[in-house]
Specification:
Length: 351
């Protein structure tokens, strides 16, 4: 066999071997790439997250992932996957969860689609504005813009200068993302209360002794503080409505407590009931000048749709249930008060 023929055969064999090696390498790379894309990222702990800021390059994103504990996968694999998924150059600003078990494909999809971490803040029914602001100050990662504002400056910043802040923020759970501020959340809660109050007032029962939606808000705040039993709210509202219609004093302890402010230490004394303030409904007729708490939607509905009936008094049962006894006459009410005291003392002595 000529040397030329041997050379051609050698070259052909080398070509075949090279092609086989290239194919095997390509298969290995393809298998590795897909295995990387759908294999959970190693090294992540519960609660880990990264924050993408405006201007972050993909290299910066990868660095933040490594700093957050992510292990495995070559940077080239991340870049190829991001390009394949259309995520390269389209990663959105925000905070992203790095939950254990998340895959590179899922994570890049979240970054591309802006599926940022959502935090929650709940305004509790019956909170007053001091309690609300104190809770906001503790909320993380909510930005604090109102810490140095008094209530008047706060309302001005919200675009409602001169409006008293009490009762103006609807109790419910609000979702927010990193970068939102306490002012953003309060603005949403104010608008939510406006909408809820407007709905309640527009559908109000006829003949209510309330001159405006603002008065309905004040009454709802009293109802909210008087009972934690949902089904009692319309009955409580009915008592107060009938008292207003008859020109009777409301005589409700929560308004007295609100008027005492920080002087309230957990007990109301007889002297407190006789001390006149704009909020003392034992010394003054009619509604107090402002709400005394944040009423929820159910209390707003109760204030504008009170139950019919003839009860003019109520007092707690005293058994720890939070329920009340409703009475038509003062004599019935006095008997209910005596029963309450017996129940209260029995529970106290049993401790």
């Amino acid at each position: 066999m000529s040397s030329r023929r041997k050379t051609r055969r050698g070259i052909g064999a080398l070509f075949v071997i090279t092609a086989l090696l290239a194919g095997a390498l390509a298969f290995w790379a393809f298998d590795r790439y897909h295995g990387f894309a759908d294999t959970p990222v190693a090294g992540l702990e519960q609660g880990a997250s990264i924050t993408i800021e405006r201007g972050d390059s993909f290299n910066t994103v990868l660095r933040k992932l490594r700093e957050a504990g992510a292990r495995g996968g070559h940077d080239l694999e991340w870049r190829l996957l991001a390009r394949q998924m259309g995520a390269a150059g389209r990663i959105q600003v925000g905070e992203y969860a790095l939950a254990p078990g998340i895959t590179p494909r899922r994570l890049l999809a979240d970054l591309r689609d802006g599926k940022v971490v959502s935090h929650r803040f709940t305004i509790v029914e019956g909170w007053n504005v001091r309690e609300l602001r104190a809770a906001l100050a503790r909320a993380e990662p909510l930005l604090q813009e109102t810490a140095d504002m008094d209530d008047a400056a706060l309302m001005a910043a919200l675009g409602h200068a001169g409006v008293h802040p009490e009762g103006r923020f609807l109790p419910e759970t609000y979702h927010y993302t990193r970068g939102d501020s306490d002012l953003d959340l309060l603005r949403r809660a104010y608008d939510a209360m406006d909408a809820a109050l407007e709905r309640a007032w527009a559908s109000r029962a006829p003949g209510l002794p309330l001159a405006s939606a603002e008065e309905a808000l004040v009454l709802a705040s009293i109802v909210e503080k008087e009972t934690g039993v949902p089904e009692e709210r319309p009955r409580i509202a009915g008592v107060f409505v009938r008292r207003l219609q008859k020109g009777m004093k409301l005589q409700t302890d929560p308004t007295v407590i609100y008027g005492m402010g920080e002087a309230y230490q957990g007990n109301i004394r007889r002297a407190d009931l006789r001390t006149d303030t704009p909020y003392n409904t034992y010394t003054r007729t009619g509604l107090p000048p402002t709400p005394i708490a944040m009423p929820g939607a159910d209390a707003l509905h109760a204030a504008t749709h009170p139950d019919d009936g003839d009860a003019l008094y109520f007092v707690a049962v005293g058994d720890g249930s939070g329920r009340h006894v409703f009475s038509r006459t003062l004599a019935e009410h006095q008997a209910a008060v005596r029963a309450y005291l017996r129940n209260y003392r029995a529970r106290r002595d049993a401790r």
